[in-house]
Design brief:
With 391 residues, this protein is of the alpha/beta class. The chain is built from 17 helices and eight strands.
Length: 391
């Protein structure tokens, strides 16, 4: 099924990718969610009895998807947003996969990011998780699925409540979490969809995304009040991911005060996480788009990355007067920040920058010289120097 809101730019391509499927016994329910452009006219140009068109007043993405599911006559549902594309064999392969796993609630495949012009960008994502650990992975690592890459059983989705219409984002992750808590998800490490990135993607709005992620987490686990260290590991993991995302998302948008707010919340929940290489490398990469963020060789804008990191550190240092935790950790935070910059530079083969930031890391926090991550970056940088000299 396909929700559509002001989708005139891409929707014809999305529909054509359905018409091109090698499996032909499909039904396409298109829900026009109150579009004010030419979406309706474009859809009506496709004269195919398998296409069902529904118009509703603008109620949001979750409501449009739920309308499509409720009006579908099939037990197996596949999502295709109006700006994404399926490869011709998508339905044939994915329907075969879910039929071979009758106990699974859903199956998923890999995806390739494309830009507004339909050109491949970034590296394909083919992450597959063992079915028995999918739920915990959603909680502790976040959603790795593209909506257009998931095929699921309608009955089981209805049993857990379909898409949450109160959420303004991450409604797909919310449904996958509820489904995977009860049933298996089966992955296929094969790219069968094109997932489009453009300026209108809702992920570009950090406030909308962070608010929805917090709302989703609070719904599952309750608010992060009291001594969260006494809470379940999954609850701590879930809130760590929310505040990590908030610190990174607001920093990428230049809203440093909000970034610092989220980082302080992360520090309260898990000081070890707040000081970790993974969190600080994520902050260094904050300004990179999603399609480049997971590529270890992606070249950041070094001046921008360093500027943003130290704008955040400066904001945290201002707050240190009112926070004992920040006062105690100020040197370690700076050391972790420089070490993350050094490792990113190492990955990008920018060795001069890497060694400079390693030196600054040790100068800011001498104790970091006794850490494994520091010496790991040192060794990797030296190895790269040796390879460069040999070449």
């Amino acid at each position: 099924m396909m929700p559509a809101y002001n989708a005139e730019i891409y929707i014809a391509q999305a529909i054509e990718s359905v018409l091109a499927q090698s499996y032909m016994q499909w039904e396409l329910v298109i829900v026009n969610d109150g579009s004010t452009d030419n979406t309706a006219e474009i859809v009506k140009e496709f004269d195919d009895p398998r296409i069902i068109y529904i118009y509703q007043e603008n109620l949001g993405l979750s409501a449009a998807r739920n309308t499509g599911i409720r009006n579908s006559r099939t037990e197996i549902i596949a999502l295709l947003d109006s700006d994404d594309l399926w490869e011709p064999e998508f339905l044939e392969i994915m329907l075969g996969l879910i039929e071979r796993h009758p106990d699974a609630a859903a199956v998923y495949c890999g995806f390739q990011y494309i830009d507004a012009q339909g050109q491949d960008i970034g590296i394909p994502s083919c992450k597959v998780i063992p079915p028995e650990t999918v739920y915990e992975t959603f909680i502790c690592e976040g959603n790795w699925l593209a909506p257009c890459a998931v095929v699921f059983r309608r009955r089981l989705a209805q049993e857990v409540g379909l898409f949450d219409e109160s959420l303004m984002a991450v409604e797909d992750a919310d449904l996958w979490i509820r489904l995977s808590a009860l049933h298996h998800f089966i992955g296929l490490p094969k790219v069968l969809v094109k997932y489009r990135r453009h300026d209108s993607n809702m992920s570009k709005d950090p406030h909308r995304m962070v608010t929805a992620k917090y709302q989703c987490t609070e719904k599952m686990f309750g608010p992060p009040v009291g001594d969260i260290s006494s809470c379940s590991e999954l609850k701590r993991c879930a809130y760590e991911k929310v505040f990590q995302y908030g610190a990174r998302g607001y920093l990428a948008s230049g809203i440093v005060e909000k970034s610092a707010d989220n980082f302080q919340q992360l520090l309260k929940i898990s000081p070890n996480s707040a000081l970790s290489m993974g969190v600080w490398r994520g902050l260094v990469r904050a300004h990179l788009p999603d399609e480049r963020r997971n590529n270890p060789a992606a070249y950041p804008d070094w001046e921008l990355a360093e500027r943003d990191i130290f704008r955040l550190l400066h904001e945290l240092s201002i707050r240190a007067n009112g926070s004992v935790a920040l006062q105690k950790l100020s040197s370690r935070l700076k050391g972790s920040a420089y070490l993350a910059l050094a490792e990113e530079a190492n990955q990008a083969n920018e060795l001069r920058r890497s060694f400079e930031w390693l030196w600054r890391s040790a100068k800011s926090c001498p104790n970091i010289l006794f850490s494994r991550p520091y010496w790991g970056t040192v060794v990797r940088s030296i190895i790269r120097v040796g390879k460069r000299n040999i070449a």
